[in-house]
């Protein structure tokens, strides 16, 4: 236990957490120990996932930038391989690029927001490869005065690789456990 505490303290000092609010602006030590490097990699992977999940519900469908060039996205048995196919899957899931947005009644309350939450994240780093397991929930409300609700939930298992010092998703398997659109039943596979 004392060794683990010392390692965490060393990592905190190395990362400069005591006085900083944004770890991504801190230069990594020149020759970190394997334990400190694993912690640095874990932080980078957690930041990658925070950025990835923050894009859901927005206008940016360029999720392919988080994947290797031959990356695979498997959502309930629908599989996309490569940047173009991954981007197309996200565009299709949002209704398509040309989907008209409904006109808003100027007297109506502001539209609610949609967010994704990730929990129970477990990251295992093995040198230049890693795995991540987590649960996800989508939350939304029709308006800011509407009742918030969980719209879908499930789990994810992904394999990542470090290329040119940057962590990227090589294979991402997503499985819905509730709230999945009925149209996906024909391809549904629990991963």
Give a verbal description of the structure:
The chain is an alpha+beta fold and 191 residues long. Helix content is 24%, strand content 35%. The protein is built from three helices and six strands. The protein has helices spanning 2-15, 34-54, 83-93, and strands at residues 67-75, 78-81, 114-126, 129-140, 149-163, 166-178. It has a six-stranded mixed sheet with strand order 2-1-6-5-4-3. Strand 3 and strand 4 form a beta hairpin. Helix 1 crosses helix 2. Residues 4-22 have low confidence and may be disordered.
Keywords:
single chain, 191 residues, alpha+beta, 24% helix, 35% strand, globular
Main-sheet strand order equals 2-1-6-5-4-3
Q: What is the approximate shape? A: globular
How would you classify the helix and strand content by structural class? alpha+beta
> What is the count of β-strands?
6
Mean pLDDT: 84
Q: Sheet with the most strands?
A: 6 strands, mixed
Mind telling me the C-alpha Rg?
19 Å
Distance between the termini: 35 Å
Topology (elements, then pairings):
Elements: H1 2-15, H2 34-54, E1 67-75, E2 78-81, H3 83-93, E3 114-126, E4 129-140, E5 149-163, E6 166-178
Helix pairs in contact: 1-2
Short description:
The chain has 191 residues and is an alpha+beta fold.
């Amino acid at each position: 236990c004392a060794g683990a505490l010392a390692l965490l303290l060393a990592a905190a000092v190395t990362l400069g957490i005591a006085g900083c609010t944004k770890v991504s602006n801190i230069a990594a030590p020149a020759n970190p120990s394997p334990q400190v490097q694993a912690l640095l990699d874990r932080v980078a992977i957690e930041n990658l996932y925070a950025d990835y999940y923050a894009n859901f519900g927005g206008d940016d469908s360029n999720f392919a930038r988080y994947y290797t060039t031959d990356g695979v996205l498997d959502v309930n048995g629908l599989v996309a391989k490569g940047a173009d196919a991954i981007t197309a899957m996200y565009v299709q899931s949002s209704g398509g690029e040309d989907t008209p947005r409904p006109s808003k009644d100027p007297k109506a309350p502001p539209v609610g927001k949609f967010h994704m939450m990730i929990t129970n994240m477990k990251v295992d780093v093995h040198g230049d490869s890693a795995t991540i397991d987590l649960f996800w929930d989508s939350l939304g409300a029709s308006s800011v005065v509407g009742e918030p609700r969980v719209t879908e939930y499930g789990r994810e298992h992904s394999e990542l690789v470090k290329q040119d010092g940057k962590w990227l998703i090589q294979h991402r398997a997503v499985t819905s456990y509730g709230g999945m659109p009925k149209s996906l039943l024909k391809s549904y596979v629990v991963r």
